[in-house]
Amino acid sequence: MGTASSMLTQYDIEEVQEHCDNLFSQQEIVSLYQRFCQLDRNAKGFISSDEFLSVPEFAMNPLSQRLLKMVDGINFKDFVAFLSAFSAKATAQHKIELIFKVYDSDRNGKVSFNDIVEVLKDLSGSFMSDEQRERVLSQVLKEAGYTKDSSLTLDDFIKVLGQSELKMDVEIPVD
């Protein structure tokens, strides 16, 4: 795939398609590549945090700092793999895996009570006090069969969230 300014070959497109479990059509991959090249302003072949923050929707997202840890320096193939969780064709498990990574900011494979409180703080800002967040979270964990001292694994996340209809779909405009 060379530099970001080079063209994708049919082989590249198929390789990226395979890398993202065929969740995007070839046309969508070409559109994503065009967007990737727009973001990769210096044609380095990867997107930096600053380049991601140039996208207003990303910069305004209350979880942007957590997401930046996941995407800083991402190449095109991994960019598409990251976005595949937002595909309408992605499974609930695929979406939950991304959500888990957002919560597991220290990448230890476990999400603690404090990890979840920090995400809730990012999402709710000053609308809730720390005490309110902890009270709500304690109740939710209790209803799910966990305690404040529990550390949730990916399997726990899948068990808890797998029953819900997660809507994380993003439409990829195709020219």
Describe, in plain words, how this protein is organized in 3D.
This is EF-hand domain-containing protein. Residues 27-62, 91-126 form the EF-hand domain. Keywords: Calcium. GO terms for molecular function: calcium ion binding. The chain is an all-alpha fold. The chain has 2 domains: 11-89, EF-hand (Recoverin, domain 1), CATH 1.10.238; 91-166, EF-hand (Recoverin, domain 1). The chain has 10 helices and 2 strands, in the order ααβαααβααααα. The protein has helices at 10-19, 26-39, 49-53, 56-60, 64-71, 76-83, 92-103, 113-124, 130-143, 154-161, and strands at residues 46-47, 74-75. It has a two-stranded antiparallel ribbon with strand order 1-2. Helix 7 (92-103) packs across helix 10 and helix 8 packs across helix 9. The longest helix is centred in the N-terminal third of the chain and has 14 residues, at 26-39. The protein is globular, with a radius of gyration of 18 Å.
Briefly characterize the structure.
The chain has helices at residues 10-19, 26-39, 49-53, 56-60, 64-71, 76-83, 92-103, 113-124, 130-143, 154-161, and strands at residues 46-47, 74-75. The protein is mainly alpha-helical and 175 residues long.
Keyphrases for this structure?
EF-hand domain-containing protein; Recoverin, domain 1; 2 domains; EF_Hand_1_Ca_BS; 175 residues; EF-hand-dom_pair; mainly alpha; two-stranded antiparallel ribbon
Distance, first to last CA: 21 Å
The fourth-level CATH homologous superfamily of the largest domain is EF-hand
The largest sheet is: 2 strands, antiparallel
Oligomer: single chain
Protein name: EF-hand domain-containing protein
GO molecular function: calcium ion binding
Keywords: Calcium
Pfam families: EF-hand_7
